[in-house]
Design a protein that fits this description.
The chain has 17 helices and 11 strands. Helix 2 links the parallel strand 2 and strand 3. The structure holds NADPH dihydro-nicotinamide-adenine-dinucleotide phosphate.
């Protein structure tokens, strides 16, 4: 029987890599829902190519454009945030969560209600609402598979191991576009420069987040939430070659490393085929040819996002949701040319400080409604901070 699969964020970088794997063995899958945003040509073409039951754009205003593109195909068309939730409730054995940003949270929670497998590329889901998401998975007997390459690597290193024997988890970071830049040049880094990653081919937003290390900051919080380890058990190591994705240190001193070419189809394929390991169309590493792998400790002056991640984990409660939303708002402003590269961290830090005292982030109850409210409020606060030039 073909497996029923849905892909949220199908038109993005992770979504397209997922479809690449699925399209290699079309008889093995029934594509239920594909979702996208503005890229209607891609969404419609993939829906037809893979015989999807439903295609959904997250924007109400694009409904007619998508409907026109799919007229006569028999593919159902829907648009808007509610349509994403509805699509997440269509029966599927395996769902890919690859929407960018906090917008991935609600569809992910709905997909978990169905009690099947949610492959989680959308790290914001765990950053914003980790305990709620894990509770939802447990309540509905659903499986949450990590897709971030570092978290997939940790997951794989833990197979057959007892989490209580883990001393530390080390996730690696390429260091992003500016790892070798002198600090005094960073303030003038342009959008084009920040949008070019040395090793990985990813969506623009996560590429910029890699340059600022906000991506790694989100991943540190994701590690804390997913693997239930304390903040001081998590380390970040700058590894410019991006071949070692993560390492797990056990209490006997052993360190298990996961290596692979920087190609997200590895982690996606692992989540798709789990518990089996199927052949994947990824480059095989030739370590002799590589010769050397290098590692260094991250510089928290260069990368203030890492310090902020530790602050967020110490705060707990709704701090993750506020942190992510402020970061998304600051990133919008950087992309729009309204603030400089280094100001993104200043905006996030100022937003957290203000909301910690005024909005009681730490002590608020963690519910989905509260997370969504704080998400909106943090965007407003971050915008106010930018408008009043407090940064
Ligand atoms: P992209 O920007 O490439 O794709 C994002 C997808 O989400 C697109 O399908 C986009 O539609 C859709 N989308 C955009 N805004 C919304 C919204 N408001 N509501 C619903 N859908 C929306 O992102 P990536 O594929 O790079 O990243 C996706 C997720 O995976 C992120 O959480 C990222 O952190 C994570 N991740 C990504 C990795 C990578 O290699 N790219 C690696 C590890 C994790 P459209 O393009 O049609 O407008």
């Amino acid at each position: 029987m073909p497996r029923k699969v849905s892909i949220f964020g199908a038109t993005g970088s992770i979504g397209q890599s997922t479809l690449d794997l699925i399209a290699r063995d079309p008889s093995a899958y029934d594509v239920v829902a594909l979702t996208g945003g503005r890229n209607l040509d891609q969404l419609a073409a993939d829906a037809v190519r893979l015989g999807a039951k439903r295609a959904v754009t997250c924007y109400d205003s694009h409904y007619h454009d998508l409907k026109n593109r799919l007229s006569g195909t028999g593919i159902e068309v829907a648009a808007g945030a509610n349509a994403l939730e509805d699509a997440a409730m269509m029966p599927a054995d395996w769902t890919m969560s690859a929407i960018i940003g906090a917008a991935g949270l609600v569809p992910g929670m709905r997909a978990l209600e169905q009690g099947n497998t949610l492959a989680l590329a959308n790290k914001e889901t765990l950053v914003c609402a980790g305990p709620l998401v894990l509770e939802q998975a447990q309540k509905h007997n659903a499986t949450l598979m990590p897709v971030d390459s570092e978290h997939s690597a940790v997951f794989q290193a833990l197979v057959g191991e007892d989490i209580s024997a883990v001393e530390r988890i080390i996730i690696t970071a390429s260091g992003g576009a500016f790892r070798d830049w002198p600090m005094d040049k960073l303030a003038n880094a342009t959008l084009a420069q920040a949008s070019s990653h040395p090793n990985w081919d990813m969506g623009q937003r996560i590429t910029i987040d890699s340059a600022s290390m906000f991506n790694k900051a989100l991943e540190v919080i994701e590690t804390h939430e997913y693997f239930d380890v304390t903040p001081d058990q998590i380390e970040v190591l700058v590894h410019p070659e991006s071949m070692v994705h993560a390492l797990v240190g056990f209490n006997d001193g052993a360190l298990m490393a996961h290596l692979g070419a920087p190609d997200m189809r590895h982690a996606i394929g692992y989540a798709l085929n789990h518990p089996n390991r199927e052949k994947l169309p990824v480059e095989r590493l030739d370590l002799a040819k590589l010769g050397a792998l290098t590692f260094k400790a991250p510089d928290e002056v260069r990368y203030p996002a890492l310090r902020l991640a530790r602050q967020v984990m110490d705060m707990g409660g709704l701090a993750g949701a506020a942190f992510n939303a402020a970061k998304e708002r600051a990133l919008d402003a950087f992309i729009a040319g309204d603030i400089g590269f280094l100001q993104m961290a200043d905006v996030v830090e100022a937003t957290l400080a203000q909301m910690s005292s005024a909005d009681g982030l730490e002590n608020a109850t963690l519910s989905l409604d509260n997370v969504l409210q704080i998400d909106q409020l943090a965007r407003v606060r971050a915008a106010e901070i930018m408008n009043t030039s407090l940064v």
